[in-house]
Design brief:
Blueprint (H helix, E strand, L loop, with lengths): L4 E6 L3 H11 L5 E7 L2 H11 L3 E4 L7 H11 L4 E6 L4 H9 L4 E4 L4 H12 L4 E2 L1 H15 L11 H11 L4 H8 L3 H15 L4 H13 L7
Parallel strand pairs: 1-2, 1-3, 3-4, 4-5, 5-6
Helix pairs in contact: 2-3, 4-6, 6-10, 7-9, 7-10, 8-9
Keywords: DNA-binding, Phosphoprotein
GO biological process, one term: regulation of DNA-templated transcription
Protein name: Response regulator transcription factor
């Protein structure tokens, strides 16, 4: 018997939230354990229930972006999936930088949402293609020239960067390398500093650009 995936849904629009819950219940392995309508409820439910996944809207009275770190503080194993109408590059970049496992747009079809939530529940990060395209376009200038600085990374930092480019979260990287998540965050901070980038998206762009041309990332 398959174990169920325990999910909390937080959105301040009751009608949309009800529709989303109904959609998720189509998948027998999804167990919707609670609903909420605010950032504070998201944090409280994450702390009290320790769900596997928490679907979070950004556009509430308080920005959902503020909740991401707070949720991680009280429920470190809970994976956060952003489900929002915003494909603004700032929102996408900031959410990814803060470690969310998924970024979905409310314009996605029901099948796309179910597929994405299923992927995240199995350990694969997911970002809606349109949202990722916006983030990549906005990040190009910030990442310009960073490939020339990849050679300054230590072997461990290059390994961490390669894993970031593969879509792994800090927690997943730590598990694979046998180090704590705080150590991974330390390496990630050093990578950002050495590459002169602001977030994971820009760092991955720099890595992918250099790897494609056979540069430092392959050394």
């Amino acid at each position: 018997m398959r174990s169920s995936t325990r999910i909390v849904v937080v959105d301040d629009h009751p009608v949309f939230r009800a529709g989303l819950v109904q959609l998720l219940r189509i998948e027998p392995s999804f167990d919707i354990v609670a609903e909420g309508g605010s950032v504070q409820e998201a944090v409280d439910l994450a702390r009290d229930l320790q769900p596997d996944l928490l679907l979070l809207d950004l556009s509430m009275e308080q920005s959902g972006l503020e909740a991401i770190g707070r949720i991680d503080d009280v429920a470190a194993k809970t994976k956060v999936i952003i489900l929002t109408a915003s494909d603004a590059a700032f929102d996408v970049q900031t959410a990814l930088d803060r470690g969310v496992s998924g970024y979905l747009l409310k314009g996605s079809t029901g099948a796309e949402i179910l597929d994405a939530v299923s992927l995240v529940s199995k350990g694969t990060n997911f970002v809606s293609p349109r949202a990722m395209s916006r983030a990549i376009l906005a990040a190009r200038d910030g990442a310009a020239g960073a490939d020339a600085r990849l050679s300054s990374l230590s072997p461990r930092e290059r390994t961490v960067l390669e894993m970031m480019a593969s879509g792994l979260s800090n927690r997943e990287i730590g598990t694979k390398l046998g180090i704590g998540e705080k150590s991974v965050k330390f390496h990630v901070t050093n990578i950002f500093s050495k590459l002169g980038v602001r977030n994971r998206v820009e760092a991955v762009i720099a890595y992918n650009g250099t790897a494609a041309s056979g540069g430092a990332a392959r050394q």
